[in-house]
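chain below, 341 aa
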Amino acid sequence: MFEFSTGSLPREAQFSAWRSSFSSILDLVEPDMSAAGFSGRQVVWDLGSMALARIRTDGFGFASLPRHTTRDPIDHWMLTLLLRGSMNTITPEAALSGHAGIVQIHALDRSFIGQVANAEMLMLFIPRDTCPGLAAGLAAAEFSALHTGMGHLLSDYLVDLVKRLATIEATELPALLSATRAMIHACLSPSDSHADDAQAPISVALLERARRIVHARLYEPGIGAETLRRELGVSRTRLYSLFESSGGVMRYIQRRRLLDAHAMLADPDDRRFIVEVAEQCGFSDGAEFGRAFKREFGYSPSEVRKGAKGNAGDPAVRPRTDIDALPPGERLGALLRRLQA
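prediction:
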């Protein structure tokens, strides 16, 4: 758990610091009179493969980040439960108005703008690629509010979860995550009326199917854009648009392979040579693997093998010291990037 507050900063710097703390996921719009001071406080819990935040904030505007200008964009769903205040969101397809007690679902890889009034909220961040069992339901419910009976139960569950986190041991996190996934899944169970209301774009379903194909066939030498185009039955242009925010099909595939390689190298029980790990993960050239690895993570495969860098393989046991050492305003973004890995 870590905290960040603007309270101790000079008034003229408070909103800028608050905006910077969200800069990996949102672009915050400066409100009028922010020079007179801006109050914001985050408390963030790392749950292993999800993150939960409790946020109190003055009002501000927000917008999604332009995907084509963002290097390595964060691709999470964000479940927001307002405890007080309001939050309105506008997408190219729909408008979402939220109020206290209702869970809203945002997708950080899509375009939207919005406004938050003075508010307190809980935010649950779910990386798209680490929760495949929830992917279809969350994709169908993007930019909707869970007004159902089960949606209200999820609201109560999140509130109770925050109250109990102080007593949760690290060994209990897997069970906690399992229970949380089950609650979300129950809220998102398909029904005819829910599907009609959600009106999920076909492209979202295609992207989820494409991701599943890549994950199932990640190490096949021939896996690539043409394979996915045939499997999905779409044009090259449509396929490109699906993976545009990930830098393209091959960029997405390479990143998934590098993440697998990172997990293998960080496993103390896996004593294979680095070149053997590289070959398993689809790299025939060890030197190119090393260069790609360092471009992706900022450090070399040998540093991971020597234990100089953290384990990206098991989210529940990743060391917290790397994030704890960062300035408080940078920790939320660092945590979300680590969960995505």
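The longest strand covers residues 76-84. The domain at 202-310 is CATH 1.10.10.60 (Arc Repressor Mutant, subunit A).
thats it, cya
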